[in-house]
Write a structure and sequence with these properties.
heterodimer, A: mainly beta, 7-stranded mixed beta sheet, B: mainly beta, 6-stranded mixed beta sheet, 5-stranded antiparallel beta sheet, 11 strands, globular
Chain lengths: 113, 112
């Protein structure tokens, strides 16, 4: 099965703090995504990328930056964390071609106090 | 963009009965409609999907129906078991970038 690994799995930070969430996929997929999951909203796309150095804006990008350093690695950055960013964050990958399945990591639970 | 509405948000059914979840979408260019199951503390996992060139797809006890005119698709779980209890998400995508727009989710509880 396709492998998407997120770290850390849990993180607590203070309001105004700086947080980086990491994601690595070993599927040789071109596309990587960052979603947040909140009750009543499902999963919402923050940013995505179709290759190293590329970044595309998702549906809820405010307050987030992202960087794709290699085909395998995609990072989500919160430079001034706010309590509204308390959420469960999922990274995902897809090859965007013949196979359209999107594979999700195990998630990072972020709490901003 | 795309918006996907999913109902109901909570669904309780008796074991061995059927469960149905409905989703609607707005963008007529959407052509891929996956369904994901998420168990507590786990990541979402694809259970079945349908593309816009089909109206019906079945994998064992899972049936997906797609009505493109009405912009509506649905998941039907037949002969439910307690192991089917989970959160279910529908989603829609317009193509190659696999940018999925998800519904709000349905918590399914199958009562023994």
């Amino acid at each position: 099965e396709a492998a998407v690994t997120q770290s850390p799995r849990n993180k607590v930070t203070v309001t105004g703090g700086n947080v980086t969430l990491s994601c690595r996929q070993t599927n040789s997929h071109n596309y990587m995504y960052w979603y947040r999951q909140d009750t009543g909203h499902g999963l919402r796309l923050i940013h995505y990328s179709y290759g190293a150095g590329n970044l595309q804006i998702g549906d809820v990008p405010d307050g987030y930056k992202a960087t794709r350093t290699t085909q395998e690695d995609f990072f989500l950055l919160l430079e001034l964390a706010s309590p509204s960013q308390t959420s469960l964050y999922f990274c995902a990958s897809s090859d965007g071609g013949a196979s359209t399945e999107v594979f999700f990591g195990k998630g990072t639970r972020l709490t901003v106090v | 963009g795309e918006q996907v509405e999913q109902l109901p948000s909570i669904l309780r059914v008796q074991e061995r009965s059927s469960a149905s979840i409905n989703c609607t979408y707005e963008n007529s260019a959407s052509n891929y409609f996956p369904w994901y199951k998420q168990e507590p503390g786990e990541n979402p996992k694809l259970i079945i999907d349908i593309r816009s060139n089909m109206e019906r797809k079945q994998i064992q006890g899972l049936i997906v129906l797609l009505d493109k005119k009405a912009k509506r698709f649905s998941l039907h779980i037949t002969d439910t078991q307690p192991a089917d209890s989970a959160m279910y998400f529908c989603a829609a995508s317009t193509g190659g970038n696999n940018k999925l727009t998800f519904g709000q989710g349905t918590v399914l509880s199958v009562i023994p």
